[in-house]
Amino acid sequence: MNIKFRLTLLNFLELAVWGAYLTSMGGYLASVGLGSFIGYFYSVQGFVSLVMPALAGIVADRWIQAQRVLSLCHFVAGLSMIAASLYGMFMGGEVSFPILFGLYSLSVMFYMPTLALNNSVSYNALDKAHLDSVKVFPPIRVFGTVGFIVSMWIVDLSGWQTSPLQFMWSGVLSVLMAFYALTMPACPVCHTASSSDPVQMLGLGAFKLFRIRRMALFFIFSMLLGCCLQVTNGYAGPFLQSFGAQEIYRGTFGVEHANILISLSQMSETLCILLIPFCLGRFGIKKVMLMSMLAWFLRFGLFAVGNPGSGVWLLLLSMIVYGIAFDFFNISGSLFVDMETELEMRSSAQGLFMMMTNGFGASIGMLVAGWVMNIYTINQNGLMIDKPDTGGWSSAWTVFALYALVVAILFAVLFRYKHQRVNK
After folding, report:
1. Residue 402 per-residue DSSP state
2. What one-character-per-residue DSSP string does 303-317 give?
3. Contact call for residues 314 and 298 (beta carbons, < 8 A)
4. Residue with the larger pLDDT of the pair 230 and 400
5. Closest by alpha carbon to 312, among 259, 255, 233, 386?
6. Largest alpha-carbon pair distance within the chain?
7. 265 and which of 121, 319, 336, 412 could share a cystine (Cβ 3.0–4.6 Å)?
């Protein structure tokens, strides 16, 4: 079977697992009285990313082939998510935060490393087929986003946006992915580390990249931008659903089908991914990252002034710019790290990138986001509505927009790098 098709299916399943709950989980949590804990559920993705992606990358580089580690992680993640779904279904509206959070956290702990491992497995397969990853991988990665969208639509149209069945769908897909990953081309394992050098022996060489100024700055700003990654994933759904408390917006498409409206963001991704090879080659990583940062500013700013009624066009614009905000940072950053690192530390370096973005960045970002949202909104009848005399959701989104703008300005001033491909 053609390797491009096989990798297309691999990436489709990888992101379909995440799309099943990432944008709709907030609505479910609010519906069972856990709206004030949304930040905790999303921040745990960041906390586990502080260790697990780097650890999995080390294991894949030194001891167990990456495609096998990918399979094992998905299997454990899938079973844990199925358990979370069964618990939610059994308890109904009486779910216990510690139990649901524990099962969910275990699943996320093993899922988050698969994002970096999936990249490593894909790059390895393309190398073996003598294909240029910068040109070939982005079109393949598009179908990861398609998988994300398909899952979102299935959850929306099945009425699972406020149901634990979204976790069941994710778990089943993850188990399927576990078996499919084993069919991927074998990845190399380096057994040559000297026992007298613990850094090499443990595969921690990727951390030496911090000695290089441009890479240190790249990882630091990746962390700062990573603070934005999960904010709209966690709160866009509850934000749109909150308009249902107002008669003028009740019954509008954005309120009733928040997941489908949000999925326009992922549709934008599918187009923007295809622009990455051209933009990286033409403008380089610095300008591409700046485009992403300014897109995050617009993403949040348009949310601050939009609504599902007369201002729905502003929300649509926010969905469109999301493709640039996410892809030009997440995928371009991954490709940049791959080009700037040696083959023997490929998985470790991808794990380090994940640790800085989905680890430190996302965990800090979601904890702060939860604090900000609790200042400006209040949970009432399963909806997170504007808290009186605070400006509500609009003020919260404005805070995030200004943060993204400040990060962009600092990056423009401090980061110095002339883009060029490193031949391995």
Report:
1. H
2. HHH--SSTTHHHHHH
3. no
4. 400
5. 255
6. 70
7. 319
Q: For residue range 318-329, what is the model confidence (pLDDT) as tens digits?
A: 999 998 998 888
423 located within any domain: no
Tell the burial category of 1 from Cβ atoms under 10 Å away from its Cβ (0-12, 13-18, 19+): exposed
- Let me know if residue 419 belongs to a domain: no
Answer whether residue 175 is part of any domain: yes
CATH of the domain at 141: 1.20.1250.20
Domain boundaries, position 164: 3-187+199-414
What pLDDT is stored for residue 418 in this prediction? 66
Nearest-angstrom CA–CA distance, 397 and 236: 10
Which two tokens mark 123? 């790059």
Exposed e or buried b per residue across 210-249, where buried means at least 16 C-beta atoms within 10 angstroms of its C-beta: eeeeebebbbbbbbbbbbbbbbbbbbbbbbbbbbbbeeeb
Residue at 305: amino acid letter: V
Whether 196 shows a pLDDT value over 50: the answer reads no
Which two tokens mark 389?
A: 């005399």
Convert the pLDDT of each residue in 217-275 to its tens digit: 888 998 999 899 889 988 998 899 899 889 999 889 998 898 899 999 988 988 887 88
Beta bridge partners of 385: 378
What region does 193 belong to: left with phi over 0, alpha with psi -120 to 50, or beta? Answer: beta
pLDDT digits (tens, 9 = 90+) for 54-94: 788 778 878 899 999 999 999 999 999 999 999 999 998 89
Q: What are the distances in angstroms from CA 423 to CA 49, 130, 132, 338, 340?
A: 29, 13, 11, 11, 9
DSSP conformation class of 132:
-
Q: Which long-range contacts (CB under 8 A, 24 or more apart) does 82-88 make?
A: 82/167, 82/168, 82/171, 82/172, 82/175, 83/171, 84/164, 84/167, 84/171, 85/164, 85/165, 85/166, 85/167, 85/168, 85/171, 86/168, 87/164, 88/28, 88/32, 88/163, 88/164, 88/167
Classify residue 209: in a domain, yes or no.
yes
How far is Cα 424 from Cα 66, in angstroms, rounded to an integer?
19
Give residue 126's pLDDT band: very low, low, confident or very high (50, 70, 90). Answer: very high
- ∠ CA 131-71-171 to the nearest 5 degrees? 120
Domain count, the chain: 1
